[in-house]
Design a protein that fits this description.
Helix content: 40-55%
Number of helices: 10
Structural class: alpha/beta
Distance between the termini: 51 Å
Number of strands: 6
Radius of gyration: 20 Å
Mean pLDDT: 91
CATH superfamily of the largest domain: HAD superfamily/HAD-like
Number of domains: 2
Order of helices and strands: EHHHHHEHEHEHEHEH
Largest sheet: 6 strands, parallel
Strand order of the largest sheet: 3-2-1-4-5-6
CATH class of the largest domain: Alpha Beta
């Protein structure tokens, strides 16, 4: 009788772990902490229709995560130097109206986990203070964050490292001891250049090889980050 072949247990790949426990965290806002990109895309499309100009999903993606000056440059590239940008942005704001974007899955659990760890957190966003204040009020986040860096607080927006360096100063920790959570290649480039440990949770844009080289890990949701911070 032939002996049965020896079987070996299937071993899974070891779970990813951060190189060191973060002493603080910096969040991006749109697409990372709040699920706003689809809401904003819809508003841009509506404003483009009102102005009778063509605007594509691919063109919108070139604006994601970028600072206002870059977005304005791209919009003039698409629509011409004389295009009434202020009127366009007013139409975008009108379409959004009083609506606010929901928090991303896992956001509350992650903030609770950081509070339990005693790890402070800040925001570094390319959005303006009005948009931040609206969502902080909607989700009662104002008292939870140690500080906020908006596009009005920096000279150079993402992908420049200034937003993350400024947030690191607010948190009073070295960038290398801080975890950045981003959803876009632009934001990843900013956090990486500032020297933060960086994790990407993609939203509208998947990471290319260059972006993957800049991050420690690409996750599916903020719930993955909660697991990374488990004791």
């Amino acid at each position: 009788m032939k002996p049965s072949p020896q079987t070996h247990p299937i071993t899974s790949r070891p779970a990813f772990r951060l190189p060191r426990r973060p002493r603080a965290v910096v969040f991006d806002l749109d697409g990372t902490l709040i699920d706003s990109e689809a809401l904003v895309l819809d508003a841009y499309m509506a404003a483009a229709n009102r102005h009778s100009v063509p605007f594509t999903h691919e063109q919108f993606l070139t604006l994601v995560g970028r600072h206002r000056q870059h977005s304005e440059m791209k919009m003039r590239e698409y629509f011409g130097e004389t295009f009434p940008l202020e009127t366009f942005y007013a139409a975008v704001a009108e379409h959004v109206g009083d609506r606010s974007a929901p928090l991303k899955p896992g956001a509350v659990a992650l903030l609770d986990r950081l509070d339990a760890m005693g790890a402070p957190y800040a925001l570094a966003t390319s959005s303006g203070p009005g948009w931040v204040n609206k969502h902080f009020a909607a989700h009662k986040l104002g008292e939870r964050f140690r500080g906020v860096v908006t596009r009005d607080d920096v000279t150079h927006g993402k992908p420049h490292p200034e937003p993350y360096l400024k947030a690191s100063t607010i948190l009073a920790h070295l960038p290398s001891d801080i975890l950045a959570i981003e959803d876009s290649p632009t934001g990843v480039a900013s956090a990486h250049a500032a020297g933060l440990m960086t994790v990407m949770i993609p939203d509208l844009i998947q990471p290319d090889d260059e972006t993957r080289a800049r991050v420690l890990h690409v996750g599916q949701s903020l719930e993955d980050v909660v697991r990374l911070l488990a004791p």
